[in-house]
Inverse folding.
């Protein structure tokens, strides 16, 4: 619709490009005029029967200047911007030839006005964006020369991924379509893990480097130092013990020699690599190399092994519990030493009692902990009480990340003898960290020794590193209890690493703590996500197993599930919408009153004019952390500022399909809003966000509570109104034309950024 036609030519000032008129506005609240000049250059008489602005808001209006017949028409559109951002509209012109039976036609021009703050200009791109393009794969005959790995890196597990698995994906559709059960447990997860690995291999290619130089490390001449921009931000993710492959850029004659270098140390923007003597002997300064990053398959290999061991050790009553073998047991009295407020928290107290009693065995006991309700403290106290109640108990405490494990360790040491706790680190861990399995004589982490490990009451490790306990020969049943904190953040095979081969299927007790309403594991493959790999064991049980669902009277069976209800983190205004949307309005506000109301009377909160100067000084702050929502899960801050990022309607469908971004991802919304204790500030596009019912509820709540300021999105013309107006026109638009017209509009609408603030005592929303 944007092309000139029928002899009609439409030009504009400013000049349009590709049917779109774009211009920048230097100052707010001053008019800016766009002129459309319409000329009939054809041989037939043409009537301009109709023209209008569509998808409008109060930022602009238009009027017509009439010229004598036979010359031209000029239409002016006037913009007056009151806010910074991108403001689109669509100009629609309808024409009809002056001939009997002629069919009307239309021409469309998109208009987009932009007003940027000085800070936005300063932070703008310095060069045109160049999307990454994956080069076509070309088989190359190579000779691989292995390098020197760090100590204690090798593993004897077999390689699972085969070329057949990649080539014959069509033959496994039946397996993917079947519900998960014990009969297909290992086969299905093998396949899903392969699908995820294939995507990981594709994704890591974007980090490959060409014509890079390396330098010899001054501290150790046997190591070469390679600069890797972004490595500190895990782009790419490189850990000690990983390997990279390099070849000389000048080598073009096949077979090409490829040298494998093992990572000995990761620094801010570089890695130190150990290569074979063959490369070191020919290495000279400024020699250029092509660099290929590789996957660390160790976690994947452990997951493959774990699902096989789950079948081998018959863990059906743990992974698919029926409840048939659950016996009625009395509730024990807890020993002294519990956290003070645990005694005043009935849900936490009951959870610890149930775990100590083993009320769910052999089925897992789930601690369903919404944000700020004290999941980790409940787990820590349960471990403490189990160790006191049963002198013969041996406990494995796991979490997906080292930081979560470190937190478990720190809190366990408050009421337990530190000599009873053994913290097992992987060899990729920074040697400067606190550790237990560090060998001073070898200057490296060592695999956990069976005899040493079995002496300790509590062993703390990540789920992946728990696989080393299986490899080290720890017998099945040695651990009477396995606790998994933040269990909702791990894929099921990763969680099973800490269970299969370690926990006795009949006598052991598995405890999973987490929140299925918060973010789950991070995956790359859309196929793996679609077919369930993104579902944690904790969430699968709560979704698909009746033992872990509410009964007819609206309560969980407390033998299997304890839902924590007291929120010790957030102000009630911050908690209100997540509580209603995700937790059936059951959460109770128990945050410290002084803490949660710290910013209720903040002088800058209701005064928009003074808000920007306050923010401008934030560049000097030292205690400011910037990261993704995933990085903040499990954490809290007095003040949280959230950028919703997505400002483009073009990507909303992709967000929905792949469950990414904020739109249509309720878990990301939930985590983002529930990190704040006192003040929450959200940055986003209200027009786009309101298309999602979750965000619409949140924004409407803030507007209702008079916590909204900025762009008035209530006057933005909706798509349904546009369709109604199109129906009244003379043009008979078919469905495809109508769809394309709406799509062209949304491409412009997608960039509408506006400014709004929502104030609910301690709740701020800025867009």
């Amino acid at each position: 619709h944007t092309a000139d036609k029928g002899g009609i030519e439409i030009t504009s000032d400013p000049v349009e490009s590709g049917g779109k008129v774009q211009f920048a506005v230097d100052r707010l609240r001053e008019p800016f005029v766009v002129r459309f000049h319409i000329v009939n250059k054809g041989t037939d008489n043409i009537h301009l029967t109709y023209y209008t602005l569509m998808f409008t808001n109060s930022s602009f209006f238009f009027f017509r200047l009439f010229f004598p017949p036979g010359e031209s028409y000029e239409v002016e559109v006037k913009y007056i911007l009151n806010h910074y951002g991108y403001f689109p509209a669509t100009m629609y012109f309808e024409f009809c030839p002056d001939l009997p039976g002629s069919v009307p036609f239309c021409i469309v021009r998109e208009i987009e006005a932009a007003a940027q703050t000085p800070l936005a200009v300063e932070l703008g791109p310095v060069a045109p964006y160049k999307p990454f393009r994956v080069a076509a794969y070309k088989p190359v005959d190579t000779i691989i020369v292995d390098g020197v790995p760090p100590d204690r890196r090798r593993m004897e597990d077999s390689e699972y991924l085969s070329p057949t698995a990649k080539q014959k994906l069509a033959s496994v559709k039946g397996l993917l379509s079947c519900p998960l059960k014990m009969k297909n447990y290992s086969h299905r997860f093998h396949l899903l893990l392969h699908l995820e690995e294939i995507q990981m291999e594709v994704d890591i290619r974007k980090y490959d480097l060409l014509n890079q130089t390396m330098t010899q490390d001054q501290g150790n001449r046997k190591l070469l130092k390679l600069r890797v921009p972004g490595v500190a931000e895990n782009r790419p993710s490189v850990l000690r013990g990983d390997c990279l492959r390099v070849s000389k850029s000048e080598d073009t004659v096949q077979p090409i020699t490829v040298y494998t270098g093992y990572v000995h140390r990761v620094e801010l923007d570089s890695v130190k690599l150990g290569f074979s003597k063959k490369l070191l002997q020919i290495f000279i300064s400024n020699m250029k190399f092509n660099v290929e990053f590789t996957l660390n398959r160790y976690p994947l290999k452990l997951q493959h092994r774990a699902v096989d061991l789950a079948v081998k050790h018959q863990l059906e009553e743990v992974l698919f519990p029926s409840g048939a073998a659950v016996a009625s047991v009395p509730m024990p009295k807890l020993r002294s030493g519990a956290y003070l407020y645990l005694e005043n928290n009935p849900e936490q107290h009951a959870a610890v009692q149930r775990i100590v009693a083993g009320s769910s065995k052999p089925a897992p006991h789930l601690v369903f902990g919404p944000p700020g309700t004290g999941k980790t403290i409940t787990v820590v106290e349960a471990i403490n009480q189990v160790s006191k109640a049963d002198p013969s108990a041996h406990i494995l405490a796991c979490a997906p990340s080292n930081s979560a494990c470190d937190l478990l360790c720190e809190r366990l040491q408050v009421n337990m003898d530190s000599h009873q706790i053994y913290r097992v680190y992987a060899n990729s861990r920074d040697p400067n960290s606190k550790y237990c399995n560090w060998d001073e004589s070898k200057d490296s982490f060592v695999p956990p020794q069976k005899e040493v490990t079995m002496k300790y009451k509590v062993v703390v490790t990540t789920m992946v590193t728990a696989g080393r306990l299986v490899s080290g020969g720890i017998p099945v049943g040695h651990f009477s209890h396995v606790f998994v904190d933040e269990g909702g953040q791990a894929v099921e095979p990763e969680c099973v690493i800490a269970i299969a081969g370690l926990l006795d299927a009949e006598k052991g007790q598995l405890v999973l703590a987490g929140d299925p309403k918060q973010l789950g594991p991070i995956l790359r493959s859309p196929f793996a996500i679609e077919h369930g790999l993104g579902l944690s064991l904790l969430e699968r049980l709560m979704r698909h197993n009746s033992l872990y669902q509410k009964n007819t009277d609206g309560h969980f069976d407390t033998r299997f599930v304890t839902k924590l209800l007291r929120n010790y983190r957030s102000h009630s205004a911050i908690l209100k919408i997540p509580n209603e949307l995700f937790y059936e309005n059951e959460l109770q506000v128990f945050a410290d009153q002084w803490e949660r109301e710290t910013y209720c009377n903040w002088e800058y909160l209701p005064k928009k004019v003074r808000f920007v100067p306050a923010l401008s000084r934030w560049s000097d702050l030292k205690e400011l952390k910037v990261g993704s929502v995933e990085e903040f899960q499990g954490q809290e801050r007095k003040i949280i500022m959230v950028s919703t990022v997505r400002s483009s309607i073009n990507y909303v469908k992709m967000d929905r399909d792949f469950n990414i971004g904020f739109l249509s991802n309720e878990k990301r919304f939930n985590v983002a809003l529930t990190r704040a204790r006192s003040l929450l500030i959200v940055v986003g596009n209200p027009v786009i966000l309101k298309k999602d019912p979750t965000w619409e509820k949140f924004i409407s709540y803030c507007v209702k509570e008079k916590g909204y300021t900025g762009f008035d999105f209530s006057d933005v013309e909706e798509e349904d109104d546009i369709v109604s107006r199109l129906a009244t026109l003379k043009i008979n638009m078919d469905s495809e034309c109508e769809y394309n017209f709406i799509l062209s509009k949304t491409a412009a609408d997608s960039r509408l950024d506006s400014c709004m603030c929502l104030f609910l005592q301690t709740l701020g929303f800025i867009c």
In short: The mean pLDDT is 80. The longest helix spans residues 185-204. Residues 8-122 form a domain with the Immunoglobulin-like fold (CATH 2.60.40.10). The radius of gyration is 31 Å.
